[in-house]
């Protein structure tokens, strides 16, 4: 299974999500494999998506996007290696007790850069966790309200996630 954002997968009439790709770091490279320092290699691999399962309460028309989460069920199990491992997700109770404010979170993605085009190379940025009330006061102009089940992870000094990073890891 893969966790992503529901808005990346729901109500997309002109395309069908066929595969999830692992170990891809440079989309412009024609090489399927990356050579490691010890001369071993790991290769990108595609897994067929068998089912798209959005949260039952996801509402694409709600600008606040509560429940914007989706599970992709793969047709086969992922073969884990030293370079490809699952991310263990905490339980809801554990999340509620985690410190967020002023903690550092890493966002990874292929989103737009300063030239307004998607990156060919997978990028990452470290961002601070922010107080939901402070975020809500910023987003009020867009009529967005954060719930206590959403995190506010913000960009400072021109660094942030951007269009195209949605659904990626945090």
From TrEMBL:
GO molecular function: serine-type endopeptidase activity
Annotated compartments: Secreted
UniProt GO BP: innate immune response; proteolysis
SMART domains, A to Z: Tryp_SPc (SM00020)
GO cellular component: extracellular region
Keyword Disulfide bond assigned: yes
UniProt superkingdom: Eukaryota
Pfam families: Trypsin
Keywords: Disulfide bond, Glycoprotein, Immunity, Innate immunity, Secreted, Signal
Keyword Signal: yes
Similarity comment: family membership: Belongs to the peptidase S1 family. CLIP subfamily.
Protein's name in the database: Serine proteinase 1
Organism, as annotated: Anopheles dirus
């Amino acid at each position: 299974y893969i966790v992503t954002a529901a808005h990346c997968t729901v109500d997309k009439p002109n395309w069908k999500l066929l595969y999830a790709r692992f170990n891809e770091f440079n989309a412009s490279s024609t090489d399927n494999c990356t050579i490691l320092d010890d001369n071993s290699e790991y290769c990108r691999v595609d897994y067929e998506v068998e089912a798209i399962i959005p949260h039952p309460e996801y509402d694409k028309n709600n600008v606040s996007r509560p429940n914007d989460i989706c599970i992709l069920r793969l047709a086969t199990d992922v073969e884990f290696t030293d370079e490809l491992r699952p991310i263990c997700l905490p339980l809801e109770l554990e999340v509620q007790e985690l410190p967020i404010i002023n903690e550092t979170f890493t966002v990874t993605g292929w989103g737009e850069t300063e030239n307004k085009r998607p990156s060919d190379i997978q990028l990452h940025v470290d961002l601070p966790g922010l107080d939901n009330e402070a975020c809500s006061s910023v987003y009020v102009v867009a009529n967005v309200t954060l719930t206590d089940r959403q995190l506010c992870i913000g960009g400072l000094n021109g660094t942030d996630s951007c269009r195209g990073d949605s659904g990626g890891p945090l």
